[in-house]
Amino acid sequence: MRILVLGRTGYLGGHVVERLRALPGTRVLGGGRSADADHRIDLASADPEQLAKTLASAAPDAVVNCAGAVAGDAVTLAEVNTRGPAVLCAALRAVAPAARLVHLGSAAEYGPGAPGVPVTESAPTSPVGPYGATKLAGTACVMASGLDAVVLRVGNPVGPGAPAAGLPGRVAALLREAGPGPEAVLRLGDLSAYRDFVDVRDLARAVELAVRASGPLPPVLNIGGGAAVRVRELVHSLAELAGFRGRIEESAPSSARSAQVSWQCSDITAAHDALGWLPAHTLEESLHALWEGGRAP
Predict the structure, then answer these.
(1) Which residues belong to any copy of the NAD-dependent epimerase/dehydratase domain (predicted)?
(2) Fold annotation for 2-157+198-225
């Protein structure tokens, strides 16, 4: 089986590639902008006809799109998160219509949730800000493509290697910088929001199952931890792992999304029914792997 992974050098893509390469009888091809990519592909600017030729030469049985932007202005986000999936789907229809497409979406596509109510895939979408809006538009492109495709709507990824672009990775970096001393101060924004955290290794396993599943899959599947966790709890758990003895102050400006989305929790029943998937790692295990993975040798 030939699997083309786009965005393979990113946080999610790296774990997906590692998981897929362990499968017997599988050849994983990397697509991206770097010189060492098996196929040079930049979905944000790719010419549809040239991309179709590249995909034809790759001859994939499945394509996993992990490429995406989480930060930047609205134009940058739209180029990567919306144009990218649209161009990819057009090229696949032209040269590899039988290939399965597994596209990574985001729980941010849903927008604010109702406290105590896990959101299902059929829930209305009302994203807050350009990131969620452009991810939702990308999902719409995939769903309307007519391809054998599934969108995995990912919660807040956490675990080994989490980058500073996300909250867990950023807090871990700040804790390392602050040190454990009692005089240290960690200044963060409001930590009262609830989020659904999923281990990046569990996400990679969901991708594997989606790639290998026989028959058509539902158009969208939630991939999350299945529980709403107060962000404050995650921060204090990381601080405990770090041996942090200083103060944690919620005095820094919060992001607009944090202020507008106070509750987020995904119902993961459909992923279990379609893929036999459930999270295998607890949040404690994920945070431990994040912290230990960043220790100096």
Answers:
(1) 3-224
(2) Rossmann fold (3.40.50)
